[in-house]
Amino acid sequence: MIDAINRLERKAFKSFWNDGLLDVMLGMMLLVLGVSWWQDVAVLGAVFPAVCVSMWAPLRKRLIEPRMGFVEFSEGRELKARTFRFGLAGFFAATMLLGILVFSLWGSDIMPKPAEWIAGFPLLLLAIPAALFSAFTQCRRFAVYALLMLLAGIEVVILDWQPHVGMLASGAVILLSGSVILARFMINHRAARDANP
Amino acid sequence: MSDPAASPDIDRLLHEPARLLALVQLALVNKADFTWLLNQTGMTRGNLSVQMSKLAEAGIVKVDKRFTNNRPQTLYQLTTSGRKALKQYKKDMQSILDSLPG
């Protein structure tokens, strides 16, 4: 009985993420990161993900909530979500510090020449949170995205490409997938003009 | 098999499949609105509306009406007595199922 209830709760939580909006944002984020890397516009790559993160909640409220409905999960689930968000923020902060460290050591005696695999590293760093998110929400497609980013990173290393090629390629695929999911969601869930019963 | 007369009384209000489905969905979360319940249960608007009205009348769920983005929104939350009733229903059903042979 407890298992069935837990399964239902997980299913309800999973359905919360099945609208495709987050996929679209992830794809766009990867594309913009790729473009900023390619065109050497670091500010764009730093600002756009922050804009995306802050835009997700208001966009969801305007686009998704009238169609999917409003839900506030149990305190236990909300606590897990908060812990996950903090963990993710910590991960990105640590990644940024690592980036600054690598950048400052670049060209010094300690790191005269970057290792060959370093070109695939940014995609690996982006794949980790996607995989963690998949585990947290039980949405398998985010694990597929993580795998896609990982493969793109490996390909970048093997084919000796610049990291932005992998970012642009995986970003385009994720954006396309997200757009299809979002379009399907919008078609299948009409916004109720009057949400009152 | 145990004596049927000794069987616990089943709460008829909760024992209706559609109502129970909506109630279980509501028990999984802290609060949810009508549209969320509609999507999760797959019921028609009319059916869900009737079932939720009955649950609200019985004090099993609390109803809160508000406006969000200029849209009226009806929020439902299981009351303390609703949680108790659901727990009791689970217990009663469990005891009946346990008394089944095999």
Summary of the model, kept short:
The complex is a heterodimer of chains A (197) and B (102). Chain A has 197 residues and is mainly alpha-helical.
Features of this protein?
heterodimer; A: 197 residues; mainly alpha; 7 helices; 77% helix; elongated; B: 102 residues; alpha+beta; Arc Repressor Mutant, subunit A; 3-stranded antiparallel beta sheet; 4 helices
* Overall pLDDT level of chain A: 87
**In what order do the strands lie side by side in the largest sheet of chain B?**
1-3-2
* Percentage of β-strand residues of chain A: under 5%
Count of domains of chain B: 1
Explain what you see.
The complex is a heterodimer of chains A (197) and B (102). Chain A is mostly helical and 197 residues long. Chain A has helices at residues 2-15, 21-38, 42-68, 75-105, 121-137, 140-158, 163-188, and one strand spanning 71-73. Chain A has seven helices and one strand. In chain A, α5 (121-137) packs antiparallel against α6. The longest helix of chain A is centred in the middle third of the chain and has 31 residues, at 75-105. Chain A starts with a helix and ends in a 9-residue tail after the last helix. With 102 residues, chain B is of the alpha+beta class. Chain B has a single domain, classed as Winged helix-like DNA-binding domain superfamily/Winged helix DNA-binding domain (Arc Repressor Mutant, subunit A). Chain B has a three-stranded antiparallel sheet. β1 of chain A pairs antiparallel with β1 of chain B.
Which helices and strands occur, and which strands form pairs?
The complex is a heterodimer of chains A (197) and B (102).
Chain A: H1 2-15, H2 21-38, H3 42-68, E1 71-73, H4 75-105, H5 121-137, H6 140-158, H7 163-188
Chain B: H1 17-28, E1 29-33, H2 34-41, H3 45-57, E2 61-68, E3 71-78, H4 80-98
Antiparallel strand pairs in B: 1-3, 2-3
